[in-house]
UniProtKB/TrEMBL annotation:
One of its GO terms (cellular component) is cytoplasm. This is 7,8-dihydroneopterin aldolase. Catalyzes the conversion of 7,8-dihydroneopterin to 6-hydroxymethyl-7,8-dihydropterin. Pfam families: FolB. It is an enzyme of class 4 (lyase). It comes from Pollutimonas thiosulfatoxidans. It comes from the Bacteria. Pathway: Cofactor biosynthesis; tetrahydrofolate biosynthesis; 2-amino-4-hydroxy-6-hydroxymethyl-7,8-dihydropteridine diphosphate from 7,8-dihydroneopterin triphosphate: step 3/4.
Length: 119
């Protein structure tokens, strides 16, 4: 079956994440890169958004999962995002999520975790 890839590059948000004392007191920026392979089951009709997976819904699910509660580890958060996407969007056959903390270290652009999963 043909697929279409939807992707997000450096979706930026503030989240409550981490185990260090200063991380428990305040939010910090996260950058999220994500790719989703979606089954193409029908022809795209330019005037009908329901003929495609609306990427606004994917973005909303990512933002909600990342901002809903404090999470200690990036590994946990990344797994939760992938689990939610696969649970809520049956069209998604493959998901890759990379979540990074751009302010974690002063000597690199970011540190993060990437998880990928397919059905």
């Amino acid at each position: 079956m043909p697929t279409r890839r939807i992707f997000f590059t450096q979706l930026a948000l503030d989240a409550r994440i981490g185990i260090l004392e200063h991380e428990l007191r305040a939010t910090q920026p996260l950058h999220i890169d994500a790719e989703f392979d979606v089954d193409v089951t029908q022809e795209v009709h330019d005037q009908n958004i329901s003929t495609v997976l609306d990427y606004r819904l994917l973005r909303n699910a990512i933002v909600d999962e990342c901002t809903r509660a404090h999470v200690n580890l990036l590994e946990t958060l990344t797994e939760r995002v992938v689990d939610r996407i696969l649970a809520e969007f049956a069209q998604v056959q493959f998901a890759r999520i990379r979540i990074s903390k751009p302010l974690a270290f002063s000597d690199c652009a970011a540190v993060g975790i990437e998880v990928q999963r397919s059905r």
